[in-house]
Amino acid sequence: ESKKFNNSSTLRPCPNCKSRENTLRIKEEEFLIVRCKTCGLTYLLNPPDESEIYEDYYKIEFRGDDYREGSKFEHLREIFEINEQRTGLIKKFTSLKEDFILLDIGCGSGLFLRSCKDAGIHGEGIDVSTNALNFARKEFGLDVYNKTTKDLINEGRKYDMITMWHVLEHITEPIDELRKIIELLSPNGYLMVEVPNLNSIKFRLSGNKWRGGNHPLYHRSFFTSKTLRETLIKSGFKDVGRIKFSYPLSNKSFIYNLLKITFNLFSADAFLNFTARNTND
Q: Are 120 and 91 in contact (CB under 8 A)?
């Protein structure tokens, strides 16, 4: 039976609509994941202190030259293939004019930006982990910074595209952050965002224990296609749309890749991909 949490000064309201009307969806150890009864967003009711957790988030146990096609590390081979598909997607959505510049928010160790560099896409990145940033600079020679979106706004920076690969779910106040991102985008600039899908078949079959999708130590919001669309629109983005994109992988079977494509058609794949545009002058 769902438990109702109301009017408690120690538990936060919904980050999207500020309602305190919610029902408990998942309890994992001390973490309470609830669904807002007003707007439908699922979010972490009692987020932990974030001051230290992200230095341990990136445990880098490889070298830069291990990130390549045919890498001896299976997870790096998969990430390489995924990032190759991401850069191809970017080229479909925008013309790479001579001064085109991309910002990757939550760039981590720089694997995606390395693929951008190889594809001729000029990119920069920001992250909170100094460990990951040092790796990205040393191994890949990337322009990455320990800065926030607010820092970049204060510097007057503008970008033609901003990417967030599995970052938005980590942010405590997603709408506030997305409004900053609009400020950083050039007129008609694109945001491309990917998050775990709360309505995925994988999550349903796991009995609410899909660690990649509802990891409450790090994740703050748990999106469905509907709530992610509404979050982007409420933030001020236009031309919000879901990309039907499922990352077929060469080391997976034909049936596996076909199932992912099929699930994706019905917004039931493990991840959700959306684009949105800044149409402000």
A: no
Query: With contact defined as beta carbons under 8 Å apart, do 168 and 174 qualify?
Result: yes
Amino acid sitting at position 181: I
- Rounded CA separation 144/100 (Å): 17
Q: Which residues of 103-121 are buried (b: 16+ CB within 10 A; e: fewer)?
A: bbbbbbbbbbbbbbbebeb
Q: Which amino acid is at 39?
A: C
Contact between 225 and 242 under an 8 Å Cβ cutoff? The reply is: yes
Q: Note the pLDDT tens digit of each residue in 167-204.
A: 999 999 999 999 999 999 999 899 999 999 999 988 88
Please state the length of the chain.
281
Q: What is the pTM of this model?
A: 0.90
Cα gap 190→6, rounded to integer Å: 38
What distance in Å separates the CA atoms of residue 127 and residue 109, rounded to the nearest whole number? 9
Query: Which candidate, 107, 182, 112, 116, places its Cα nearest to that of 147?
Result: 107
Structure-token match 């669904």, residue found: 35
What are the DSSP calls for 14-60, one per residue? PTTT----EEEEEEETTEEEEEETTT--EEESSPPP-TTGGGTT---
Token output for 228: 């992610």
Say how many C-beta atoms besides its own lie within 10 A of residue 22's C-beta: 25
Euclidean distance between the first and final Cα of the chain, in Å? Answer: 49
Are residues 121 and 144 in contact, defined by beta-carbon separation less than 8 angstroms?
no
Pairing of strands 102-105, 159-165: parallel
Alpha-carbon gap, residue 187 to 215, rounded angstroms? 35
